[in-house]
Amino acid sequence: MSVNQINKPVPEKGRRRKRGNRKGFTTGACSAAAARAAAVGLMHGVVPDEIECRLPNGEQVRFSVIDGYCNPTRAHAVVVKDAGDDPDVTDKSHLTADLQLQSAPPNVVSFKAGAGVGTVTMQGLGLEVGGPAINPIPRKNIEENVRAVAAPLLARYGIEVKISVPGGEELAKRTLNPRLGIIGGISILGTTGIVHPWSTAAFRASVVQGIEVAANQGQRTVVLTTGGRTEKFTLRQLPDLAPACFVQMGDFLKAALDAVVDNGIREVIIGAMVGKLTKMAQGETVTHANRNPVNTALVAELAAAVGAPASLCEEIRQGQTARFATERLAALGLQIPFLQLLARRVIETLRARYPGRFTLRVLVCDFEGNWLTEVSEDE
Would you place residue 251 in the very low, low, confident or very high pLDDT band (cuts 50, 70, 90)? Predict the structure, then answer.
């Protein structure tokens, strides 16, 4: 299915779909589409059956709206998530938006977690404690879509956006959300709006193919990134490299590095953020969040090595995310030394697994894709 087509309906019961590399849509994109449809209802008195929504990556996508109703102050709309060929626990979930006009203050779009959307209870996720588990990029995208159609209303009112996912509390039990301090439901996620089949053999094969293409073009360097933001980050940092050198490996570290060896690539540059780097440092070969949790004992060990006080190291050990550690260490001026030590540990771990097969360099960015530091194997 093209990403510009309407979401596919739920398959008939008992009917198996052939797995492949068909892309789908994130919970954030579906939430934005539902919110936009509800905003149209507030503006015009009717919630449409279809809605065109702008994704974070700039694409315009048309979604089906399966349920919608409104009155002069409230509107409700539902979009069914199609995850494509990714085995996502939220596939076919009903992403639901309920919008309500607020008398004051005007021109403010606020957010609320409805049933099935988690509430944040711990620091380290880049979200307000006590607020809804709607990540920053989806939150911005939802607001942009609401403002695009409801600007006249926002001149006089505020609009509260409540996102719900029926059954989300049960779905969350199959994720790491409870471990991360997100309670009561799933997170609303997605940096581009598009779901790539990260966990399928098809995507793994595409990673290998990308490295083969680089080798066939005579490239001696590949830049392995974990997603869209890290790829854009490395493209900015390495403008002299050919486009073929850049390969999004997603979570498939081992598949990518095995392909590097098989194709005689001599230099590997890894671009990543702290969470994925920690997974690499602790020896994970597939870095997906749902595989194994971050080894916070390792994170605490590295924090201690750069001079973090024992009390903070114990907090980090008891925490759940590497991001929590970097936020606390940044306040002490220790973030960069910590990240440099973490990058060196990544190099040591991978060099032990692939001795003498290629050289390694690690580029580290923050959660907005901004450069933080880098470490080379010979340092």
Answer: confident
As a whole number of angstroms, the distance between CA 248 and CA 358 comes to: 19
196 DSSP assignment: -
- Residue 239: cis peptide before it, omega within 30 degrees of 0: no
**Per the structure block, which two tokens stand in for 175?**
């994720």
CB 177 within 8 A of CB 127: no
For helices 27-44 and 136-154, what crossing angle results, to 10°? 10
Distance CA 33, CA 113 (A): 17
3-state secondary structure of 153: helix
Instruction: Give the single-character DSSP code of 325.
Output: H
Query: Nearest to residue 280, comparing CAs of 313, 252, 238?
Result: 252
Domains contained in the chain, CATH given = 24-195 (3.30.2110.10), 201-376 (3.40.1050)
User: How much is the pLDDT for 179?
Assistant: 67
DSSP class per residue in 327-368: HHHHHTT-HHHHHHHHHHHHHHHHHHHSTTT-EEEEEEE-TT
Packing angle of the helix pair 296-305, 274-281 (nearest 10 deg): 100
Express each pLDDT in 279-329 by its tens digit: 999 998 877 666 678 899 999 999 999 999 999 999 999 988 899 999 999
Encode pLDDT of 66-98 as tens digits.
Answer: 999 999 999 999 999 998 877 788 999 999 999
Q: What is the bridge-based pairing of β-strands 371-376 and 359-365?
A: antiparallel
Which residue is listed with tokens 């995310």? 321
The answer to whether the beta carbons of residues 27 and 93 sit under 8 Å apart is yes
Among 8, 152, 135, which residue's Cα sits nearest to residue 66? Answer: 8
In three-state secondary structure terms, 122 is coil
- Distance separating alpha carbons of residues 94 and 60, to the nearest angstrom: 21
Q: Is the dihedral of CA 48, 193, 206, 213 positive or negative?
A: positive
Q: Where in the chain does DSSP place strands (E)?
A: 24-25, 50-54, 60-64, 67-70, 74-80, 94-102, 109-113, 116-117, 119-120, 158-164, 182-183, 185-186, 194-195, 221-225, 246-248, 267-272, 359-365, 371-376
Q: Let me know: does 38 contact 47? Beta carbons within 8 Å.
A: yes
